[in-house]
Amino acid sequence: MSAALLVRPDVGCDSPGMAPRLPLVRRIPKHPRAMHYNRLAAGVMAVNLGWAVYGATDANWWTSDGTDLSAIALTAQTNLAAAVIFRQQYILNALAWLVTRPPTSWPLRVRWALGKYYRFGGLHVGTALAGTLWYLALVVSMVRDAVTGVGAASHAHMILGATIATTFTVMVVMALPRLRAAQHDRFEVTHRFCGWVALVLVWLNTMLFVNTHRGDEWFGSALLTAPSFWLVVLSVALALWPWLLLRRVPITYERPSSHAVILRLEHGVVPAVGTTRPISRRRFVGWHHFANVPAPAGDNGYRMLVSRAGDWTSALVDEPPTHVWVRGIPAVGVANVRRLFTKVVLVATGSGIGPVLGHLLDTTVPSRLVWVTKNPRRTYGDAFVDEIEAAQPDALIWDTDERGKPDVLQLAYAAYVESGAEAVICVSNRTVTWSVVHGLEERGIPAFGPIWDS
Fold first, then answer.
1. Tell me: the pLDDT tens digits for 260-293?
2. Which residue of 136, 304, 309, 320 has the fewest C-beta atoms within 10 A of its own C-beta?
3. Residue from 365, 316, 315 nearest 342 by CA
4. Helix (H) and strand (E) counts for the chain?
5. Rounded distance, CA 341 to CA 413, Å?
6. What is the pLDDT of residues 93-110, one digit of tens each?
7. Which residues pair with residue 278 across a beta bridge?
8. Are residues 130 and 44 in contact, defined by beta-carbon separation less than 8 angstroms?
9. How many CB atoms lie within 10 A of CB 116?
10. Residue 11 neighbours by CB distance under 10 Å
11. Nearest to 454 by CA among 119, 130, 128
12. Of 396, 393, 388, 394, which Cα lies nearest the Cα of 296?
């Protein structure tokens, strides 16, 4: 493919070489702030708001005689159990399998919508935020009952409730996008360890609530028949499960340049094409997700491409360890949506080639590659580039050292038109990904890219 593809005067456009944008009314739902992820989170909050209205009116949770603390606590725990469920890799993989079953004969608009399944992390955000607010409501209600001299909340109830609410609030604040991006390590530590502490406290609080309201019933019987107890059991089991699969596995590596290292893992497991998994040098901190790349023909195991992009990756590139920790199971990545389309354009910049390489090697869905990177052979090695060119003889590999930085949106659009693809998948940094995905979708072209919510 040549640079001439960037300019197509036969295409009506409001931007050089590109189709015109959709009318404003149709563009609004395509805006990043209106993406499915945010819609799902807002929908969860709306449902909880409706439930709160019901509790305050028909259910009479708040009266002059006291508050129905059990109902509020159960609502909080239901949301938090759902937040844990929506983060499970089995759930994500099952959903990915289900939504990619429809044939390509289905209407494009339907397949386009199904392809947004990977944004269902909005359900995690919505339920986690709602659960935190419900715990805050629980604490406020207990204080209100104590001040007015009604209800049965003890000092232990209030202390536990306030601690749980504070813990969840810290997790929510640290998960705010800008703070999370600027303080990733602190986000990881607070999210994990505060979450574990909160689960222990919720467990204690649940048993305390059941004991307070069991009357003459045996405590064990009351506990086993309490819905909140089983929600806590479910939450703990799902939070614990990935760590039961924690393994320290040996690695070998190839370092084609000072910018990148290719890890080779062989431990009896070969992840499916298009999956990712976290690895770390240490058991409980410093976890980072990388795509699982199939091993070259004739080799065993699988690979991970790691590029220098910060302190952690720089240390891995400079001094690769002999072993790394893995946990959980491989989770399906965003490029899996290709199965919904007859042909796709895969756009990658730099080490974004890692997550799409498996899809290039798997020819069940025709694709066209656009790869923008600096001196690919010097950076990633001749063998790696030869493998890509063998899989994609018509790929556009744009060497930024030789040709400068391109308009990736223009390249993606040109490849989309030229190849006759139905959709575009972009794996790059946040700025480029949003530029490509939003730029294409506001022109009525299905486009997909990571959303950095893992």
1. 999 999 888 889 888 999 999 999 888 999 999 8
2. 309
3. 365
4. 19, 15
5. 17
6. 999 999 999 999 999 999
7. 289
8. yes
9. 18
10. 14
11. 119
12. 388
